[in-house]
């Protein structure tokens, strides 16, 4: 098949997913051209990326940072145009010359540019799971209305996508799908004693056994809220209700997820835990390209094991299922409270085990909120954060 060059915007280019995306794209200069790169505050990293990839645009969080980057790039003889702020993020996501948008900003901050890409009908590679948790219906409606192509980057969802029929249309029954089985590594505290969790530090929480990731998602993996957010993400991506999405703890992270069919078949996608696999899969879909990932050595792995998730040790997982079943604004509230609690934990202002308490209390207190429009989503996010911050202060 002949391919034309695809112009790519990477939102969150300096993060873990952003860098892996550029690593894959750089292996295929005949297929991908970098149109825009964005970062929040990492001027040095974005400067290096601008010299290496010569994008048309670079976007930073504020004018100050943008000014610094602009003058450094001029000095280096680069003609990259530097923009700032959230409006600029949306502009480089929806720009008419862009074909593909990698949505890899962490947290609710990534929603608006990801939604802009979806509304503009782009090929959207979605790593930013929080966008779907916050505004699943709005986001999926935007994709349907514009005809955007939405491809999941989260390794579990990418695995499920690969195990589903090519013509799957968000209806499990129409394709004989019985269950979606999301695998979870169990994070660094899978077998720690409950009492030991009281004194967990940010460094311990961020030391994931199998994956190297940004700090927020690393803490989410340690509380298993990451899997909770992924259950909600799977609901929106694949149209499956909570009772058809099961979590299976699989500490080796070799099976990235599975789909069970009505006839008893279970299809799995396997591979080394390296995000370049799902990224390359989505970048090239429906073709396959080299990702720089080494072959899976099954003899070295030798055995794959499975455990039931422990909802007592990981109350965040139970809270996420509860929010999904409740519907309405509950998932958005859960996400906002989690982001605030995780930020406080990383700042050493909240104990690890209180993260779940803050989220539970915020869910109890948040009433009368809705998520039917972008304005409502943003207002709900803000209100839930206010409540969560009060709860965090009460924990001190
Ligand atoms: P990261 O912290 O390494 O990088 C985040 C990126 O977003 C950086 O480029 C940062 O500059 C930018 N950013 C942060 N705050 C911002 C703001 N307020 N406005 C604009 N830009 C901002 O995170 P990551 O690990 O790469 O994760 C990115 C997303 O991908 C998250 O939603 C995460 O859940 C998801 N994800 C990550 C992995 C992984 O292996 N890292 C796997 C699956 C899904
Ligand atoms: Mg994942």
From TrEMBL:
It catalyses: 2-C-methyl-D-erythritol 4-phosphate + NADP(+) = 1-deoxy-D-xylulose 5-phosphate + NADPH + H(+). Signal peptide: none annotated. InterPro entries: DXP_reductoisomerase (IPR003821), DXP_reductoisomerase_C (IPR013644), DXP_reductoisomerase_N (IPR013512), DXPR_C (IPR026877), DXPR_C_sf (IPR036169), NAD(P)-bd_dom_sf (IPR036291). The keyword Oxidoreductase applies. Residues 270-386 form the DXP reductoisomerase C-terminal domain. It is an enzyme of class 1 (oxidoreductase). Residues 8-136 form the 1-deoxy-D-xylulose 5-phosphate reductoisomerase N-terminal domain. Residues 150-238 form the 1-deoxy-D-xylulose 5-phosphate reductoisomerase C-terminal domain. It comes from the Bacteria. Transmembrane segments: none annotated. GO terms for molecular function: 1-deoxy-D-xylulose-5-phosphate reductoisomerase activity. Its cofactor is Mg(2+); Mn(2+). Mn(2+) binds at residues 154, 156, 230. The keyword Metal-binding applies. Its EC number is 1.1.1.267. NADPH binds at residues 14-17, 41, 128, 130, 214. Keywords: Isoprene biosynthesis, Magnesium, Manganese, Metal-binding, NADP, Oxidoreductase. 1-deoxy-D-xylulose 5-phosphate binds at residues 129, 155-156, 185, 208, 221, 226-227, 230. Pathway: Isoprenoid biosynthesis; isopentenyl diphosphate biosynthesis via DXP pathway; isopentenyl diphosphate from 1-deoxy-D-xylulose 5-phosphate: step 1/6. NCBIfam families: Dxr (TIGR00243), PRK05447.1-1 (NF003938), PRK12464.1 (NF009114). Belongs to the DXR family. Catalyzes the NADPH-dependent rearrangement and reduction of 1-deoxy-D-xylulose-5-phosphate (DXP) to 2-C-methyl-D-erythritol 4-phosphate (MEP). This is 1-deoxy-D-xylulose 5-phosphate reductoisomerase. It comes from Thauera sedimentorum. The lineage of its organism: Bacteria, Pseudomonadati, Pseudomonadota, Betaproteobacteria, Rhodocyclales. The gene is dxr.
């Amino acid at each position: 098949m002949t391919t034309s060059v695809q112009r790519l915007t990477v939102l969150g280019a300096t993060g873990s997913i952003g860098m892996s995306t550029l690593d894959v794209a750089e292996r295929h200069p005949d297929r991908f051209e970098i149109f825009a790169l964005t970062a929040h505050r990492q001027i040095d990293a974005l400067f290096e990326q601008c010299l290496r990839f010569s994008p048309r645009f670079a976007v930073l969080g504020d004018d100050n940072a943008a000014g610094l980057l602009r003058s450094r790039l001029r000095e280096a003889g680069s003609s990259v145009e530097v923009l700032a702020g959230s409006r600029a993020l949306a502009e480089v996501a929806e720009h008419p010359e862009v074909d593909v948008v990698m949505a890899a900003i962490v947290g609710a901050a990534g929603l608006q540019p990801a939604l802009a890409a979806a509304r503009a009908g782009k090929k959207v590679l979605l790593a930013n799971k929080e966008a779907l948790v916050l505004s699943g219906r709005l986001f999926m409606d935007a994709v349907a209305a514009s005809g955007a192509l939405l491809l999941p980057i989260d390794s579990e969802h990418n695995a499920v996508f690969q195990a589903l029929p090519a013509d799957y249309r968000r209806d499990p029954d129409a394709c004989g799908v019985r269950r979606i089985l999301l695998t979870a590594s169990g994070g660094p505290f899978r077998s720690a004693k409950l009492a030991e969790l009281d004194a967990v530090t940010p460094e311990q929480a961020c030391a994931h056994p199998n994956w190297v990731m940004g700090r927020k998602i690393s803490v989410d993996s340690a509380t298993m809220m990451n899997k909770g957010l992924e259950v909600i993400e799977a609901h929106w991506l694949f149209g499956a209700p909570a009772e058809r999405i099961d979590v299976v703890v699989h500490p080796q992270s070799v099976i990235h997820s599975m789909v069970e069919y009505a006839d008893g078949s279970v299809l799995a996608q396997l591979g080394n835990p390296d995000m370049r696999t799902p990224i390359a899969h989505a970048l090239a879909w429906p073709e396959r390209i080299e990702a720089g990932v080494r072959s899976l050595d099954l003899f070295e792995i030798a055995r794959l094991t499975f455990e039931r998730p422990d909802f007592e040790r990981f109350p965040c997982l139970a809270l996420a299922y509860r929010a999904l079943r409740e519907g309405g604004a509950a998932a958005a509230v859960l996400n906002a409270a989690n982001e605030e609690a995780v930020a406080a934990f990383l700042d050493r202002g909240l104990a690890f085990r209180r993260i779940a308490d803050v989220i539970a209390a915020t869910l109890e207190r948040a009433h009368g909120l809705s998520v039917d429009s972008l304005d409502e989503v943003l207002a709900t996010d803000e209100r839930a954060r206010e409540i969560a911050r009060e709860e965090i202060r009460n924990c001190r």
